[in-house]
Amino acid sequence: MKSRLSITTLVLLIMSVEATESLGAQSPAAKLSGALQVCSLLTDAEVDQLVARGGDASEKHEMHIGGGTSCTYGIGRGQIIVYSGPNAEASLNGLLKSFHIDTVTKHPVSGVGESAYAIYPKPRDEYEVRAGLLATKYRQYVLGISLEPDKDKPSESVQPGLIALTKVVMQKLP
């Protein structure tokens, strides 16, 4: 049986390559200081309520990426990406561009940081799931929060969930 790939799964594959390539460019202080542990931001109850929403998000996969960290729940059910530092916004924009979703219509979102927007890219093939992604700036962070909609619901149906999840993540950032 062919496995279903999602945007978030593909994002992790590319980010792992970028992370491996960028490790040599990090200063020793950056390596020792430790990156934010994104998977630890949410409790299991919050994951069930905000990410799983009746689906399966029991598996958590955290990955350190150049300039940030990501946590993927389930097989693409949801993902939290947190970049920090002076190149945070450029890092997220580069990620979107690498998937050719940087030109997808951006829908402004209020109440969750600065310059927040949501995008709903169309799957590129039958193995890629639909997802909504909310991007925002908050303090020194740039967040990329994605959720997979329930079956038979449009991608845009996740926007209230994206907002709720983003608010919880913002409250828990150091």
Overview of this protein structure:
The strands form 2 sheets. The chain has a 7-stranded antiparallel β-sheet with strand order 2-3-4-9-8-6-5, with helices on both faces. It has a two-stranded parallel ribbon with strand order 1-7. The longest helix has 16 residues, at 7-22. Helix content is 32%, strand content 26%. A hairpin with a 5-residue loop joins strand 5 (107-108) and strand 6. Mean pLDDT is 80; it is low at 1-33. It starts with a strand and ends with a helix. It has 5 helices and 9 strands; from the N terminus they run E-H-H-H-E-E-E-H-E-E-E-E-E-H. It has one domain (5-172). The protein has 174 residues and is α+β, with helices and mostly antiparallel strands.
Number of strands: 9
Strand order of the largest sheet: 2-3-4-9-8-6-5
Q: Shape from CA axes?
A: globular
| Helix content estimate | 25-40%
- What is the helix/strand order? EHHHEEEHEEEEEH
Characterize the main sheet. 7 strands, antiparallel
Average of per-residue pLDDT values = 80
Rg estimate, integer Å: 15 Å
Structural class: alpha+beta
* Cα distance spanning the termini: 42 Å
Query: Counting H and I runs of at least 4 residues, what is the number of helices?
Result: 5
Amount of beta strand: 25-35%
The poorly predicted ranges are 1-33
The number of distinct structural domains comes to 1
Set down the secondary structure blueprint.
Elements: E1 5-6, H1 7-22, H2 28-33, H3 44-52, E2 60-65, E3 68-73, E4 78-84, H4 88-98, E5 107-108, E6 114-119, E7 128-129, E8 132-138, E9 141-147, H5 159-172
Parallel strand pairs: 1-7
Antiparallel strand pairs: 2-3, 3-4, 4-9, 5-6, 6-8, 8-9
